[in-house]
Amino acid sequence: MHERCLPAAPNWYCSRCSDVSGAGLFGFGAKNIIYLIQVSASTCRVVGELVGHRDLVSSFCFCPHTEQSHICVSSSCDGTVRFWDTETKGLLKEITTHQNPVSAVHWSPVDKNLVVSGDEKGVIVCHWFNTGDSSSFFPEPRTVFCLSCSPHAWNHVAVGYKDGMIVLVDVSKKGEVLHRLRGHDDEIHSVSWSTEPGESALCSRAEESEEGCFLASGSRDQTVRIWSTARGKAVMTLKLPYLKKRGSAVDPGVKERLWLNVHWPRGRGAQLISSCFSGELLLWDLLRSGKPKWTLFGSSSDAQGHNRIIFNTSSFVTSGQSLLLSTSMDREVKCWDMSSLELCWTLPALGGFVYCLSFSPLGSGTLALGVGDNMIRVWNTQSSNHYDTRSFWQGIKSKVTGITASIFIPQISSSYHKKTIYTLAWGPPVPPLSFGSSKGKPAYSLYSCAGEGTILQHDPYQLNSEAFNIDKLIKNSNNIQHKLSPHTDLNWKPDGKVVAIGNEDGCIDVYEAPSLRLLCSIQQHHKIINTLRWHHGLSPELGCLLASGSSNAIVYVHDLKHVLECPGDSAVVITEPFRRLSGHTAKITGLSWSHHHDDRLVTVCYDGTAQVWDVLQEAPVCNYRGHHGNLLCVDWSPVDPDVVWTGGKDFTVHEWRVSRQEFDKPPKGMEENGGSQGKKKKTKAKKSSVTSSLKKKKPRSMLPLSTSMDHRPKDELLQDCVTLASVTHNGCIPGQGDHIHLGLFSDREALRRMFEAEEEGHLDAGHFESVVYLRLWSGDLQGALQLATERGELNDHLLSLAPMAGFSVWSGAVDAYVKQLCLQEQFLKAASHLLSLNKLHDAIDLLRSHKLYREAIVLVKARLPQDEPVLKELYQSWAAVLEKDGHFSAAAKCYLAAGSSFDAAKVVSRKNEASSLRAAAELARVSGETALSQSLSLRCAKELALSHDWSAAQDVLRTHDALLVHRLHFSLAELLSQFLSDAGVIPAAPGVCSGVWRSANGPIAFQERVERVWGEKFGVSRSSGGHCSVKTLLQELKSVENPQPTANVQLKQVLLSVSLHLTRAFLSFLSEEEVQTMEELWRAVSWVKDTGHFSVFSELCHLLFPDGTTLAALQNSSAPLSAAALSLQSFVHYLRLYERWWSFPVLNENGVTQNGTEQTDTEEHPDETAPDLGFDATILLCESTAAVQATQRAMNEIQDKLSVMVTKHRAQEQESEEQNGDTTHEQDTALTVACSFCPQSFPRPDVLECCLLLLHFGRSSPAVSDAVKRQSKDLLQQFGTTSRHQKVTQKFIIT
């Protein structure tokens, strides 16, 4: 229907609002319409629209399968998903499964029938196009921003949410979540799958690229992330670069200016396209090393790219050339060549109503458009580039509603209209500007007509001067005293001799220039004049025709030739038109005469059509119906007699040919926006009902009976006048019976009788409030208060009047009102009224009883002495409530105000975090609660130590001398943590070092290092006394309880417990308590071993006993080693035995390594010819220990058998219960530290395990002596009675 069209601008802030088919058909959503554009590498053309959605189009997608490429799907904020046929431009089906606005839709590239959509509440729906079935699921309670179906697996869908979460779901398993991809911290704008299967393109290890594929995501957090869908984690993060382009000063930290769209082109697995901050397009090379990884589209010229953020991109291949299409906030669609990254063409779009359009008289075919998006477009319609437009927006702060050609440089008038300007026109100047031209230049004036009804004349050479209101000249020239009707439009005759002005009352006045003397008044229209147009005058016979359009849908043409050629002394009134053009069904908004014809006129209307007329014949020529909304403007092409241009509220400008239109008349029964006449009537009826429901409700009459008597028939009302005049003669009684209403016009007694009758009527109707006011007006204040009290309808107004009846009445009314307010839960207001009676304690009790402690305390402190006992009670009661609700800080303030410092510190510490404990400890210290302060400081220090904030822990303990021993403990814990972290045994945790151990760095023994630092930093040594006495500190530390070690204890708690035992050991060593030293060292090592941290156990032994044979040096006497020392020595040797075995390549008879690990390093091994193991192995071969362990194993076997028997018995009794195997089998590996402890207090390693290890090691190493081998074999033969031990022992006994 149309030749060319400037479409509406694509919708903003939608993740997928445009798409392109393989055939080069590009579609995008603009408002509630989908525009279809046929694109190629050189040009584009709007070929149709898909109309049907009732709200904003939020997403659009073509079917990616060739056999269905003409079918597309769209979603909208109206909650529907619609399928369209782009060949017929018709709707195929509408899906209404969603109950909320739909935000995203995508057609599966794998399954030609699967379409997936998501809405703002997080509901995902799968639609099957062939069957019409659908299924919905709810993977996450979040707002869906975007989604995309996998191009490799039909059932995999990636969903991006507003809060930054990306979820991979399996639609074949009712929306089962495969992965939750966390990394973005703001809304997900776009997700795009790699078109290449597998993950080999970016992965270096083959095992990570066998399945899955990559997914790209763009977020408002300014990053692009590449995700591995097989592993469910990010493999690459790309940070957007800040490109200062076109002189812009955009701050990249302002996230509101960013929309990050990503697009993975087909066949380019290592290249990704993304948008940037200010409309730039970036091509990312994911395999490029170094920086930058991106290349800029259109880098050869700044004028090529978009100048605002980009929302959507899509690509296709045509004739072997890859093209990329992009839509932006700058309201332009651009096509890019992906090979050269250069711009191919630009399609401008409109973002508002097209209010006006006009061809320039200076440039052939140059069309100017005034648009509601605050921009002016100038379109060179004769250019080889069919959409050669320029946009002007600088200095425009509102919609452009009027436009006219100008030869002047851009200026802004200093005079302003009060409302919107609708008409601009050039014309000859009128007084006072016509008195002389400006500096000899040709005299022109610019006239503007605005919504307030005034027309201003502007001097274009001095726009900074004040504009002139021509109403003053009209009144003076025509001797008019009354107010002029507001003006709505004006149009100068081409010769500049007369001007026609349309008015709000439907009248058209024609004035002679320059005096503006009224020549005639056309009173044909009866509604507001919308548009006026003089004939172009190329034909002298028709040069005086004036066409006018108003809101009454009829176009009138008047021939003013006689009036203009022979003007009279007085104005002529014209009431009949020259021609009447009827057919439109709504108000006329625009007119344009054809310069190529004498009698052709085109009109546009709110019925959505444009009509071409043969004016002389009063006949319609053609009707254009290509727009989808009200039309606002029209102009006939100055270069082609068959072309007309129209614009309207559908945000479009159409070029169409008169000769190619299907219809010749406007559609019958059409109203505004294409509605029917019947629909208009229904709409009017509905509006009238809504208007009536919104009318202000008339208040109820206080005197309904007497008022109703005034609405009787006319004869009865006249009789009332006679009756009232003859009251004293006919004996009627005003104010009662049939004459109740006459009490208003008689004496007071009659008025009282009327009041009594009215009260009875109000009581019967239940209008007690009206009764109260009637009593109040009659002076019965006490009765009014009594009735209001009984009904519970006392109010502030009545209470303010109560003192007029006396103190007792007022006091009773206040008490009653307080009870009423309490029932209404207005406790503060009730307390305030009690204060008016000076019932202070009652007000306090009322507030306290309803837990308004804050207000009660304010009242007490403001009105009562400071030492009032009730104040402390209020604080304590409030504190109890706050503590129960978890508001510990506020509760502490209450306790402090009540003088309970101990309780305040206790309640602050209840949160059990470092900051709360520290504050509580300081509070207790300041308040003099020393014991409590020490306890809380110790708890705080432990929390800080667990978080490795060693400096803060020392600061907390430093305020109390009595906690010196705990400072020693935490200093040793810091040293131990630092050592294990440096050794790589435990991960390096972020923390704050206290700096205690800096002075003791270097190659120094652990024992000496601790002793030196304790002496220098803490003043603790063998000779220290007072609170630093070693024995005193040791006694304090012995009172500290330490839990039993279990496998569930966290490693950081293990280190604190181990450091506690080490602190006791070093204090015992300084106080020369040898046995105690050994026992604490054994407990420290045992704690680590029992919790299962073998690597920490190994490093701790190396730290404490570097050579493994210096245990005796810790005992100053020559007495034999204690039981603890022997146990400790045996475990150290046990560890060294394993280390010796691990570092030696032990081989079996087949020559295969048997050390349990693959030998990969090239460390130097001990000499194979070493005469011994480097330690005394016999300490591991204790016969008595072996006997005890054998007995324990036998007991365990008996217990296991009994357990199995009991389990079988229970299974027979309860067949539904599964058999519970309770035995625990030891692992057949030498790496396991399988230690079966004897029932003694200081157990040793498993003797039989050590025997087997020594024999196994001795087969290929001379380090194990024959005596040790013999002793090991003897112990195995004697105590290896279990079947497992016998089987393993047999091969060593035979050899």
Automatic annotation (TrEMBL):
Domain Gem-associated protein 5 RBS: residue ranges: 1006-1162, 1241-1280
SUPFAM superfamilies noted in UniProt: Quinoprotein alcohol dehydrogenase-like (SSF50998)
Gene3D superfamilies in alphabetical order: 1.25.40.980, YVTN repeat-like/Quinoprotein amine dehydrogenase
UniProt repeat feature WD, residue ranges: 50-94, 209-237, 347-389, 581-615
Residues in Gem-associated protein 5 TPR domain copies: 742-950
Annotated keywords: Repeat, WD repeat
Region span, Disordered: 662-710
Cross-referenced CDD domains: WD40
Record-given protein name: Gem (nuclear organelle) associated protein 5
